[in-house]
Amino acid sequence: MLKTGARWLAGVVAVLCVVLVGPSVPADAPAGRSLPAGAARDVVAANRVMTWNICNPCDESNVDRAAAIAAFAPQVVGLQEACTRDVDRIRDDLESRYGLVYHVEYGMVLRSWARCGGVPWNPGGYGEAILSAAPMTDRVHAEYPDGGSEDRGYLAVTTVVDGRPVRVFNTHLAERRQEEVRADQARVLAAKVAPYEHAVVLGDFNARADAAELAPLWSLAADADPRCRPSDADACEPTTDWYSRFDYVFLRGVTALTHGVRPTPVSDHHLLHADLDLDRA
Predict the structure, then answer these.
(1) Listed residue (226, 222, 140, 145) closest to 183, CA to CA
(2) Contact (CB, 8 A) for 124 and 170
(3) What confidence category does residue 9 fall into, taking pLDDT thresholds of 50, 70 and 90?
(4) The whole model's pTM is what?
(5) Interatomic CA distance for residues 44 and 100, integer angstroms
(6) End-to-end Cα distance, the chain
(7) Is the dihedral of CA 206, 186, 91, 94 positive or negative?
């Protein structure tokens, strides 16, 4: 009887601790995101897209990367400089810690031990990835004919944003000081985007808005930030630690309601997100 009473008292104390102090969650978990997997559909912002170069090689925690994504809970997120193992861990952490369930498609351009680790005979894949709360179809992945100093490519899928199907592209253009290579890559990408009435193009383009090489994309689409355009590149909010705007959410036949840039300590690129309205396209 004494043991039973002690267990009852311990249970009461534990409940009171949860009520007064709050549930035990990771220190880096954004408030309100520690949810069961079954609640994922109630948490994901169905009209939100995000692009993020997660930095590689960088010795950063995938737990911290998942927390940064979970703070915004986008319907779709395009990642650049991504390793398959890292993305797998980010996806698993988003589900186990935050109840956010994502499908993943990969667009790997390298198998690099230096970039992604692994073992010499099975190095990790490196490139782009798209995470989507809705299933993805019609996946297309291609490398650009000339990647520049490193292989580069694009990944495209059809998925659902704001309750409507839309074509989503994710890319990473050639490094800085390779303008001619980026120009060729932008022409290739623009030709693939052009047939779609509604498209979202995410990525790290390694160029300011007024760079000549981005002209093929500007001719098809606008940035989620209406102030950011080739004629006023200084109005574009920086998306990198070196105060340059290199990351974009290009929209073709899609309207942006809001947009935002969020610096993060776990990458040299900032999170760029936008809430979209496909009914007003």
Answers:
(1) 145
(2) no
(3) very low
(4) 0.85
(5) 7
(6) 69
(7) positive
